[in-house]
Amino acid sequence: MDSSRIRIVLVQPSHPGNIGAVARAMGNMGLQKLYLVAPKDYPSPEAIARAAAAVSVLDRATVCAHLDDAIGDCRWVVGTSARPRAIEWPEMTPRAAMAQAAAESARHEVAIVFGRESSGLSNSELDRCDILVRVPVVAEFASLNLAAAVLILAYELRLAYTAAGVTELAAVSGSATAEQVQHFYEHLEVVLGEIGFLTAKPPVKLMRKLKALFRRSRLSTEDINILRGILTAVQQPRVRRQQLPPDP
Ligand code: SAH
Q1: Strands laid side by side in the 131-133 sheet
Q2: Strands (E), the chain
Q3: Fold of domain 178-243
Q4: Which residue of 110, 164, 206, 234 is most buried, as measured by CB atoms within 10 A?
Q5: Which residues line ligand 1 (CB under 6 A)?
Q6: Which of 78, 81, 92, 131 to mutate to test the pocket of ligand 1 (most atoms within 8 A of CB)?
Q7: To which CATH superfamily is domain 6-168 assigned?
Q8: In the predicted model, is pLDDT for residue 172 greater than 90?
């Protein structure tokens, strides 16, 4: 297990004070890698002031334009939400998810993604996550402050790292990166369009159901190679026929 393989990703945070408070929470719990996706107001003196002794987390933060840039090389991506979402995104408790994240970090990069203060994560951003985590707060007031949400998950992660026996939790080996999975989905959508299978434009609902199906099987890099090979063969039927031996 290696907490340096865990990154906290904030999608379009609006308030620099929250970015600083997130850095502080991360510093408290021994996390170092912060990714900021299109922050509204950053760098900022307010962020530095709120980070307190964890300014090094801000100094090393990576700023990206798109969520894909922040999670592309990760092989397990956790999304967080204040609200329950559709069944397409399997939910785990914060404790179970962070125990799994700790185990996964023994083998590969892991991302924990947090949404905008105003509107959380969009459905298409959740599409890029392997699982969804919701801190079980009271239903009438479910929305935590961004930095408070990070602190709770970072604390659970810290417990997981220090708990006896967590090393026995198996990380899935050979799982695909978020970028490989995303490219596969894009390829699949193109091919489904080409063969006339898609009726709706854009085919958001169908694609979301297909993604849920693949998410359940936790695709490996090898699986993706096979599936994309099949898609390419579907796109080149004539080339394929020519390669077959002639009929006797
Ligand atoms: N109004 C937004 C709330 C966003 S709060 C909404 O309804 O979605 C900002 C971010 O903090 C969320 O996107 C999520 O990443 C995190 N967060 C807030 N409350 C949470 C909770 N109860 N469980 C998990 N994450 C939470």
Answers
A1: 62-64, 33-37, 6-11, 110-114, 76-80, 131-133, 91-92
A2: 6-11, 33-37, 62-64, 76-80, 91-92, 110-114, 131-133
A3: Helicase, Ruva Protein; domain 3 (1.10.8)
A4: 110
A5: 80-83, 114-115, 117, 119-121, 133-135, 137, 142-144, 146, 149
A6: 81
A7: SPOUT methyltransferase, trefoil knot domain (3.40.1280.10)
A8: no
